[in-house]
Amino acid sequence: MENELTFCQMSLDRSSTLRKNSAWLQDKIVNEDSRHYFFWRGKFLFLDQEVFIFVRKMANDATNNISNMDTITDVLTDSDLIFLGTSDTKAHFACDLSNMNEEVIAKWLDNLAIDNIKFIDFRRSLSLLTHQQGAILSYAKALIHWQQSALYCGCCGSDNKSVDGGHRRVCLNSDCQREHFPRTDPAVIMLVEYQPETGPALCLLAEHHRTPEHMFSTLAGFVDPGESLEEAVTREVFEEAGIKVSNVRYIDSQPWPFPNSLMIGFIAQAQNLDLCLEEEELRSAEWFTAEQLTDFNDWGDDGEGPKLPRKESIARLLIDLWCEKQLALTV
């Protein structure tokens, strides 16, 4: 089925073969139709509440509102641009300006002389983006994070060089020359349900220490080396809540660029109700019926009542799907 989750509707052809052609890449970098996005320390550049996409041919358009075109083209020339893919032969690139401090980036924005242009935190900007834009920018953010964390070779400590449009780094030590590739950390996220002999089904939701109070979500955890996804679900639920589960069923997946995870969603059947919480991970956990969850507020709503996760998250998808199924059974 088509995945409609946030960050999943990538509209670009990633062009993994073309990005290995340095001559083709260089031609696309300076091509007047190429699209460029600008990133600075977790934020993307926006103009009038829309993501700002620079196209070089704007320089030849007398109606454009960029009075200092060199301010943009200079950073494109001086930066290692990250190639994101193509759309209708047009190449898309991300330009990371994070090496500029706050004073320098503020001056750079001033030099653009464009009204209502500013950097907005990516997570907070999601409501301003289409699903396709969200997928492109999440891809850019994940690659930029990897680039920033792989400046040096993990084997010998020498400098790494970015190649293949930012999708590979190579150690510059001639005795090493180790290749490094972007990493994705798989994480399982699961809604645990329990069906008593009589009465409505229950699901287990928890308050995590890393989220605000009264925000209830599903359990989750990273996959260990040498572990299957189903084994990870079983282990994480038992470690965090003391619950043994069976009938682990895959539902959906979602890339999560905070910073570089792949969330793999499941529903699992609990064998018991007795909770034994891992207090370092969870503030609290409770069993809820679908009817009870209909009274919960959404993430970000005012008030002190219980809340459900962000609507763009796979955690919310798992909860919503489960509630829809249970409520349909009561009609």
Descriptive notes:
The protein has 331 residues and is an alpha+beta fold. It folds into three domains: 18-148; 150-182; 185-330, Nucleoside Triphosphate Pyrophosphohydrolase (Alpha-Beta Complex), CATH 3.90.79.10. Helices cover 25% and strands 30% of the residues. The protein contains seven helices and 19 strands. It has helices at 22-30, 69-78, 102-112, 131-149, 229-241, 290-293, 314-330; strands at 35-40, 43-47, 50-51, 54-55, 82-87, 90-96, 117-121, 160-163, 168-171, 179-180, 185-194, 202-208, 216-217, 219-222, 245-256, 261-270, 282-288, 297-298, 307-308. The strands form four sheets. Strands 1, 2, 3, 4, 5, 6 and 7 form a seven-stranded mixed sheet that branches. A hairpin with a 4-residue loop joins β15 and β16 (261-270). The longest helix is centred in the middle third of the chain and has 19 residues, at 131-149. It is globular, with a radius of gyration of 23 Å. 30% of the residues are buried. The model has no long low-confidence stretch (mean pLDDT 93).
